Amino acid sequence: MKRINFTWDKGILVLLVLTIFVGSFITPYFANASNMSFVIQDIGEFMLMSIPVTFLIIAGEIDLSIGSTVCLSSASIGYSYRHGIPFWFCIIIGLVVGLLCGLINGLLVTKFGLQSLAVTIGTLALFRGLCYVLLGNQPVNQLPSSYTNLGSNAIPHTFFPYVSILILIFGAIGWFTLHYSRIGRWTFAIGINVEAAKFSGIPVARMKLALFMITGLMAGLAGVVYTFRFASASPDGATGYELSVIASVLFGGVSIAGGVGTIWGVMAAVLELGVIRSVLQLSNVSANTLLVVSGGLLLLSVAVPRAIEISRNRRKLVSKS
Amino acid sequence: MQKRLTRVAIAVLAVSALVGVTAPSNAGVKGIKGGLKIAIMPKAVNIGYFTAWDKGATNACKEIGARCTYLGPTQATGAAQVQFINQVIQQKYNVLVISAADQNAIVPALNKAKAAGITIVTSDADVDPTASASRVTSILPAASARIGTAEVDWIAQATGGKGSIAILSAAATAANQNAWIAAMGPYLTSKYPNMSWVGGTVDKSVFYGNDDATTSTQQFDAILAQYPKVAGIISPTTVGVLAAAQEKKAKGATVAVTGLGLPSQMAPYIEDGTIQKVGLWNPIDLGYVAVYAAAEAASGTFSGAVGSTFYAGPTKKAQKTYTVTAGGITYLGDPFTFDKSNIAVFKAIY
Amino acid sequence: MTKYVAKLLNIREIPVLIALLIVLVVTGIANPQFLSRSGAQDLFLGVAVIATLSVGQTFVITMRHVDLSVGSTAGFTAYMIGKESGDHHGLITCLFVALTIGLLVGACNGFMVAYLKLPSLVVTLSSLWIVRGLFNQIAGGNTITDFQVPVSLGYLGRHSFLDVPYIFLIAISLVLFATYVMRNARSARDLYAMGSNPPASALAGIPVARRTFFAFLACGAVSGLGGAILLARFHSADSNSGLGLELNVIAACVVGGVAIAGGVGTPLGALIGALLLQSITLALGALGVSQFWQLAVNGTLLISAISLDRYLSLRVKPTRILRAE
Questions:
Q1: How many CB pairs lie under 8 A apart between chains A and B?
Q2: A302–C307 CB contact, under 8 Å
Q3: Whole-structure pTM value
Q4: Fold for domain B37-140+283-332?
Q5: Over the stretch A60-112, which tens digit does the pLDDT of each residue have?
Q6: Going from the N-terminus, what domains does chain A have, and what CATH number goes with each?
Q7: ipTM score of the complex?
């Protein structure tokens, strides 16, 4: 089982390289610095959010409220700034709001014992509702350009947008934590068998609470990035982000059943989806086709490993007899 | 004989193919650069109103000899539109005519497009006034005050100048609608003393239908449920007024309904008396004029400065001149009204 | 007396029913208009679509699966009925279109989950996007309006029998029928076993793949039916129809006692859950809560409802499926 998913992770990397290669030939507009910069910016928030969600899904939970958390974090930044708070402190408020959202989700799941799929549907509504409470129908604009330019511009002398720094830092942290630290091993253990994990002394409830809080914090960070990128805060931002993030994570080879997955597979998957969208869009493929392709790819990501597994089992049976 | 004809035909076709004669034969309009590559971007491609808007834009494109493409997201959000603005930059368009899905979120992207040398004109929905430098001009139907007050006049005519009024709007953050509603409030209080807002003030009387047929229907019912004595409902959005008319007819309600409606969609309800009058500008005109403004700006003959003018029309005889007013906005004129007397004509146009 | 109360509380659906009655009574006192004939009709009309869709979703959730594609399927069906049937076709044509689309989607989902053993969340998320993409492409910018809705279907959406709207009667008949089937038919009861303990049920001889396939098939068919009701109720359809319905349906099921963990709950519970959530939404309006607060309050009450249901379920025995054993 583990072998197959590593194959899919490698498969994603191959797919990524292939897409970039083929894409540069299909359309002349794809493979240049300006477009690549945009693609990375476009997926920046998704990349940041997919790292903690990987941990969460491996541990057997799910969070449908992350889009609303991004919006609430952005709305808090806007609200605070509108009320005269210095912008650097507004950013901190945004991060704290994200953390609190994660805390609420975590408590509902661990202390109240509610199913994360169900309760995060509720927090999805609650957090987005709070965005409307904060901003009403008045989006906030005219944020300090020294900050928001970080959301639009690239690092000088390169084509990498500033969000790449965050992606590299948190990607590295996530990669190391999941695959080389005790926390990572515990995450896998909880996902594979919760009861066994409990009995081996892993503080399951505390771990899950921490995972939800970190997810909230990173969603808060994504909210900061979002606010910079669009130089504004609006109560209807980041709609539908949660399903995209979860789909990206699943596309990256993380099993929804828990216990399986890699960070680099997920990051490659997020990048791959952004690249595919860019290639198709620049080839004038309609947005509707894009939707169908995304759905098809997601399906392939589980069908292909399954097909390999079935054929491997069949070969085993044949070789045994 | 036949063989010869066939050979001639093939030769003509071959030459035509080489010359690329696929575009209509209009050689373009004097003063406007030919062969401009123009992107026409609605808030969302799946909305019927913008299909009409595009029709006007395409007509203009044909007249000036430009290559136009209609492209945009399926969801009317700023984040989605930004992806398409990037496409416009990457595919090296010369001109972008856009209806802003979000008045703030697309501004950084528009600035990038402007830096890449693309001429930008907004049409139907503008960016925030603080960002007016990111586009040459904005083609809007009429001043918010005029559209808002006109709708109040229509509802007053339908209710006989008395009763309480509610508003069924689009999304809570819809800039156009919010501006029109802001104009409605003081106007109703000052001109129609016998009329009032259901919630006391105009701000408390707005229900948000989110430009979604289902939500608008539900909000219409909610208005009737919360304020059974409501005399009139103004719906400044084509989706909302259609849903309101449908639901009014279905429930047999007596509340008066008016707003901004596409004549083709509202015709049945005007003809059978459910609605007395609705109004709208012609989205075809909005698209048409926008393309001309953008093309002239791209050709260097129109600066977009307040007080500058541009013309829209293929020949001197058919041209109409427009002037840029404060904030860089160009107004087309007051909305048309549609009632039993003229609906038959307009429903065939848009 | 306490013995009877305890026995009553044992029924899984009772706590939700009590919550529903509390909401109705409290709001009715604050705003008597809420409990009037038109208020009740608004409730029934508003809940008809979700109630129908939740029947299928209950089948799927009790097996520990989920079907996220119901919204796209329902919306697509609503549009296609309007487009294909035209003004003059009868109910049979509508039903035919609805079931064809629904069964097709359900069969695809069912095949991939039951026989290819792919995870249902992934499969139905993909179908959600694939169906929506195809739907957008076919619909474009068109809107189905009043005059393209088949007259017979439109009639059902606008009229009532003894003051109860027809579409609600259809929904509740479906719910009661499905509840009866789930409680008594052996093949349906297997769904509970599969949700409670998948390995054991396989070992016990339950044809798991076949049951799973038919449950998704039924869910798809019900989604198609839900699309017909959507069109009947709103007399309009466009490429955004049904967007986001799936989360509302899942919420209604969970609140109504159909636990995500599987093995428990009935369509009747889901119906009561849907009534509770819809009455909360209507109540917020009736109580004059500001538009900008409604979503936040709604979310809070949803979380409370889920918590309450969980709390009570820990103190109450699960659905009595098998008679005296």
A1: 85
A2: no
A3: 0.90
A4: Rossmann fold (3.40.50)
A5: 999 999 999 999 999 999 999 999 999 999 999 999 999 999 999 999 999 99
A6: 8-313 (1.10.3470)
A7: 0.89
